[in-house]
UniProtKB/TrEMBL annotation, chain A:
PANTHER family according to UniProt: TNF RECEPTOR ASSOCIATED FACTOR, TNF RECEPTOR-ASSOCIATED FACTOR 4
RING-type domain mapped to chain residues: 49-87
Source organism: Xylaria flabelliformis
Span of zinc fingers (TRAF-type): 112-156, 185-239
Recorded coiled-coil stretches: 258-285
Record field: compositional bias (Basic and acidic residues): 416-428
Span of domain TRAF-type: 112-156, 185-239
Lineage: Eukaryota, Fungi, Dikarya, Ascomycota, Pezizomycotina
Name the record gives this protein: RING-type domain-containing protein
Compositionally biased tracts (Polar residues): 391-412
Domain of life, per lineage: Eukaryota
Alphabetical list of PROSITE patterns matching this protein: ZF_RING_1, ZF_RING_2, ZF_TRAF
An example molecular function term from Gene Ontology annotations: zinc ion binding
Keywords, sorted A to Z: Coiled coil, Metal-binding, Zinc, Zinc-finger
UniProt keyword Magnesium present: no
TrEMBL record, chain B:
Superkingdom, taxonomy of origin: Eukaryota
Domain UBC core: 2-148
One function term, GO molecular function aspect: ATP binding
Class of this enzyme: transferase
InterPro entries attached to this UniProt entry: UBC, UBQ-conjugating_AS, UBQ-conjugating_enzyme/RWD
Pfam families: UQ_con
Enzyme Commission number(s): 2.3.2.23
Alphabetized UniProt keyword annotations: ATP-binding, Nucleotide-binding, Transferase, Ubl conjugation pathway
Family (UniProt): Belongs to the ubiquitin-conjugating enzyme family.
Entry-linked CDD domains: UBCc_UBE2N (cd23813)
Name of the protein this chain belongs to: E2 ubiquitin-conjugating enzyme
Catalytic site positions: C86
Length: 428, 152
């Protein structure tokens, strides 16, 4: 029996799947062979395929109510077209269908071990989730080597480390292995992998020496009171005993308190410094305010220069001086900008106030203009009508008025004019 | 392969919950080959006898029936001189849903109920039909002679 779910086996199961004549309602995973899985719990007899005697995989139910794995019933049917349980004639296409959902659900909930158990994954998971685990998350799944020209596989955990398929020599047994297999070799196989500790005489795996050193009971380490002056090196196993007898144990608690106090002091000092700077800043600002009141703008700008030489003592360093200078200037700029804003606001209000009456007047003038235009048009109309009336009442007296003859000889003009007027009667 | 997983399961079950009067033990070097012993059913001419059989699971098992044969000589109308068995479930009526244990139970039942109408050993069947008492006596005799452990 090969170990479950070796890659070769996965490959075989995929090809057989592809060859099957009937493919429907698939829950068979091409990556994880559900038949090769190791089931964690006792399986109900009703969920076991009568043919392969394993928990059903993509169950099919016959018209005579017997349930089989799809793969099994297809295979059995090819040899003998009857139901394997009751031997009634069976048509595969018409008389079988996917088993009810409840059976699928029960099967999906069965707990299985990760197929990479042999590689060290100890996860137990519902059967429906095992493929997801293996294909996406399991650290022990073999994935293609990240190196493009290497066609070997490597566990997912090591896939980020680049191609590990080069030969290295095991430093303990002188045999050559691929880097990817070296750790496993040194952990489990190398004949020379164990080493007994020179101090405690227990055996440990060589390449885990660092871990052993950290816990070896015979290794000598310094006393926990070393910071307070104890210089003795004590074996780990007798450390607690030494701690009880160490001359410095009396100093221990005091030393601890001292360290605490020192830390506290440091924190307080820092706080104090912060506050001092704050005070300097405020003092400087407060000093500048009365000056602004007494002197004018130009004097105000040169103020810090005046202040600095007169009072250099409060500043501990150049940096601090410049910082406070900067802060003062900043405050001043702020003040100026706010004043500027105020002036701007005032100006705009003033402007607004003055424009408003002008606007009113403008509208008034415009309306007057409209009325005037109206009058003019009315008058024009009136005049034209009158002239027309004169023209019709004295047709023979054409020579009486010089302009009328022209008018009569050019009817388009008169019509045009009257038309224009007629066009706009509502405006009048 | 998955199907050999079925064989492993069947073997495990045969050992953990054996069928009364039947034992089947796989060979260590070939797990498809079983040494079988069937106790003659009580009330039959074979009572008290322990019959050895060999059982072989081919590569196509369970799609094809197991090959099974009596090793102990037995006077039975459905078993020939070579120990071959005439039983429908081992031939046409095989179903992949059957198992080693069910087949062995069928054979045990066949010992309890010989079927001379569908004979394999023609002479045995003939004497069974003509003189049943004599045939049963012969069967008992053979059982004592070949199938009783003390006689061996």
């Amino acid at each position: 029996m090969p170990p479950p779910n070796t890659p070769e086996e996965g490959l075989i199961s995929t090809t057989t799947l592809a060859l099957r004549p009937l493919v429907q309602g698939e829950s068979v995973s091409p990556v994880v062979d559900l038949r090769a899985l190791e089931y964690e719990s006792e399986i109900d007899e009703n969920l076991i395929c009568p043919i392969c005697r394993l928990p059903l995989v993509s169950p099919m139910i016959t018209n005579c109510d017997h349930v089989f794995c799809q793969k099994c019933i297809v295979q059995a049917h090819n040899l003998n077209p009857v139901c394997p349980v009751d031997r009634l004639p069976l048509k595969l296409v018409d008389e079988t269908r996917t088993a009810p959902k409840i059976i699928h659900n029960q099967l999906d909930n069965l707990l299985v071990r990760c197929p990479n158990q042999s590689h060290g994954c100890s996860l137990i998971v519902a059967r429906s989730l095992v493929e997801n685990h293996v294909t996406r998350y399991c650290d022990k799944t073999l994935v293609p080597c990240p190196h493009p020209s290497c066609d070997k596989t490597v566990t997912r955990r090591d896939s980020g480390k680049g191609c590990l398929h080069y030969n290295v020599k095991c430093e303990y047994c002188e045999h050559t292995y691929e880097k990817a297999d070296l750790e496993d070799h040194q952990d489990n196989q190398c004949t020379n992998r164990k080493k007994s500790c020179e101090l405690c005489e227990t055996e440990y795996v060589r390449h885990k020496q660092d871990e052993h050193v950290k816990e070896c009971p015979e290794a000598e380490i310094s006393c926990k009171f070393a910071p307070f002056g104890c210089t003795s090196q004590i074996k780990r196993k007798s450390l607690s005993e030494h701690a009880r007898l160490c001359e410095y144990r009396v100093v221990g608690p005091v030393g601890e308190q001292m360290a605490e106090l020192r830390a506290e002091l440091k924190a307080l000092q820092e706080k104090d410094q912060l506050k001092e700077r704050r005070i300097k800043f405020l003092e400087n600002k407060g000093f500048s305010v009365p000056t602004t009141n007494t002197s004018e703008g130009i004097a105000d700008i040169s103020l810090p220069e005046n202040t600095a030489p007169t009072d250099p003592a409060p500043y501990e360093s150049r940096d601090q001086y410049f910082l406070s200078l900067f802060e003062t200037v900043e405050a001043k700029v702020e003040r100026l900008s706010s004043a500027l804003n105020e002036v701007e606001g005032r100006h705009s209000v003033m402007l607004f106030n003055e424009t408003l009456p002008i606007k009113d007047q403008l509208t008034e003038i415009r309306s007057t203009l409209g009325v005037l235009g109206m009058h003019v048009r009315w008058l024009m109309n009136f005049r034209l009508q009158e002239r027309g009336r004169v023209g019709t009442s004295t047709p023979n007296m054409s020579g009486s008025l010089v302009g009328t003859q022209d008018n009569n000889n050019d009817p388009t003009l008169s019509r045009h004019l009257s038309d224009t007027i007629r066009e706009h009667p509502p405006r009048l | 392969m998955a199907l050999s997983k079925r064989i492993i399961k069947e073997t495990e079950r045969l050992t953990s919950e054996p069928v009364p009067g039947i034992s089947a033990v796989p060979h260590e070097d070939n797990l498809r080959y079983f040494d079988v012993e069937i106790h003659g059913p009580s009330g039959s001419p074979y009572e008290g006898g322990i019959f050895k059989l060999e059982l072989f699971l081919t590569d196509d098992y369970p799609m094809v029936p197991p090959k099974i044969r009596f090793l102990t000589k037995i006077y039975h109308p459905n078993v020939d001189k070579l120990g071959r068995i005439c039983l429908d479930v081992l031939k046409n009526n095989w179903s992949p849903a059957l198992q080693i244990r069910t087949i062995l139970l069928s054979i045990q039942a066949l010992l309890g109920a010989p079927n001379p109408e569908d004979p394999l050993a023609a002479d045995v069947a003939k004497s069974w039909l003509t003189d049943e008492n004599k045939a049963i006596a012969t069967a008992k005799e053979w059982t004592t002679k070949y199938a009783t452990p003390a006689a061996k």
